[in-house]
Write a structure and sequence with these properties.
The chain has 419 residues and is of the alpha/beta class. It has a single domain, classed as Divalent-metal-dependent TIM barrel enzymes (TIM Barrel). Helices cover 44% and strands 12% of the residues. The chain is built from 14 helices and twelve strands. It binds the ligand C[C@H](O)[C@H](O)[C@@H](O)C(=O)CO and manganese (II) ion. The site of manganese (II) ion has 5 residues, from loops. Manganese (II) ion binds next to loops.
Length: 419
């Protein structure tokens, strides 16, 4: 029996099992089809970019590993992303950092960057049916130091204000070009190794910088602000903490980015969704996997990810939550890293979409708490994998582990030849 026939048979049986608990698998698949992940371009080349490929990564983040085959230029980054995308079911977006501009080999400083430096990306995105998202880049630059937008030195702070304003203009141009808002993320590493004499001084400066940056209103881009617990070498204090950005976002109607690696390890990110949806316009996610710290391990299908996806579905908030990924692993095949993380994220959302939430809520409102727990437990062993296989089949991407051999082939033919 061929794979297609087996997948269809298993799917039909699964559809019956889910129907028995009032879940329509086809409706779940239709909703999954509309979920676009935003693939982070920086997994392809260990956050190097094209501004200064020989420079080192700064800003309290670190990539570990030296697996061969890292993309070395814009063509290789594009080819690797398209290859990864071809193994991920659905239609997805690409999240670019400013240092990935098409600078044509010229030195373009961060306060000089323009939409023209991203024209070829916009065209590439359209050709390949990948809409673009964007990030300002405040790390890996001689003026990065420990403080950028919160720097008391006006010449440094103004440099980064100018950079960030330009990045908003680039995002707007992308949004216009693709006729769909470009999500622009702002993350800065500003902080200090020891507790500063005044915490409020730097937060006041960051607030003032943001007010100036956001003074221009745009219609085709959306601002997202990303908090962090700490950076390497900046362990005691982060200017842009969660409280800071949540307060700023709630007051100024800005989107707060939740990077799942940026919190205390026992903190539930899933639990934040329902509160944030009541006070901020939308949510941007950076799905990551912290191991002991913000280690940016490849995303896998963990309980934390499942909880997060279920919360978003239970809040009926797919139209208000943007799902970006953010990790960088240089110890394994980088294309494989993309595919594992993206497929894991989609699997989590599929499982969430297959939850009979009306029945569970009904049990709860009738105080049938044994029944609620029993159904939640039984759901864990319902055949969602057969629905996933059907999703892959329908989207013409490898079913199950078949992508491993395909990635091995790309490695043998392409990435292993990069020296
Ligand atoms: C490279 C990204 O901007 C970065 O990962 C940021 O989003 C972050 O999460 C920093 O820890
Ligand atoms: Mn992030």
């Amino acid at each position: 029996m061929n794979t297609e026939k087996k997948v269809k048979e298993a799917f039909d049986l699964a559809a019956e099992r889910f129907a028995a608990v009032n879940v329509d698998v086809n409706s779940a698949l239709e909703k999954l089809q509309k979920i676009s992940l935003s693939l982070h371009c920086w997994q392809a080349d260990d956050v190097t970019g094209f501004e200064n490929p020989d420079g080192s990564l700064s800003g309290g983040i670190q990539v570990t590993g030296n697996y061969p085959g890292k993309a070395r230029n814009i063509d290789e980054v594009r080819a690797d992303i398209l290859t990864a995308n071809s193994f991920i079911p659905g239609t997805h977006r690409l999240n670019l950092h400013e240092i990935y501009g098409d600078f044509g080999g010229k030195k373009v400083d961060r306060d000089e960057v323009e939409p023209a430096h991203f024209q070829s990306w916009m065209e590439w995105g359209k050709e390949n049916n990948m809409k673009l998202d964007f990030n300002s880049t405040s790390f890996s630059h001689p003026k990065s130091g420990n403080l950028t937008l919160a720097n008391p030195d006006d010449s440094i702070r103004n440099f980064w204000i100018e950079h960030t304003k330009r990045c908003r203009a680039i995002s707007e141009a992308m949004g216009v070009y693709q006729n769909d808002p470009c999500m622009m993320n702002l993350w800065i590493h500003d902080g200090s190794k020891e507790v500063p004499a005044s915490r409020i001084k730097y937060r006041q400066l960051l607030k003032d910088s943001l007010d100036e940056i956001f003074a221009t209103e745009y219609k085709n881009m959306k601002d997202c602000i990303e908090a962090k617990l700490f950076g390497i070498g900046l362990e005691s204090y982060t200017v842009g903490s969660y409280d800071f950005y949540l307060g700023y976002g709630a007051k100024n109607n800005k989107i707060v980015t939740l990077d799942t690696g940026h919190f205390h390890l026992t903190e539930s990110i899933a639990d934040k969704i329902s509160s944030m949806l009541l006070f901020t316009p939308e949510i941007m996610l950076h799905v990551s996997r912290p191991i002991r710290w913000d280690s940016d391990h490849v995303v896998v299908l963990s309980d934390d990810l499942l909880d997060l996806s279920r919360e978003i579905i239970r809040c009926n908030a797919l139209d208000r939550v943007h799902i970006g990924l953010d990790y960088f692993d240089a110890t394994i095949n980088r294309i494989g890293a993309y595919v594992i993380g993206c497929r894991a994220t989609l699997k989590a959302f599929l499982q969430a979409l297959l939850e009979p939430s009306a029945t569970l809520q009904q049990y709860e409102s009738e105080d049938k708490l044994f029944q609620r727990l029993a159904l939640q437990e039984e759901l864990k062993s319902l055949p969602w994998t057969a629905v996933w296989d059907m999703y892959c089949l329908k989207n013409n991407v490898p079913v199950g582990e078949d992508y491993i051999a395909e990635i091995e082939k790309y490695e043998a033919e392409v990435t292993s030849k990069r020296r």
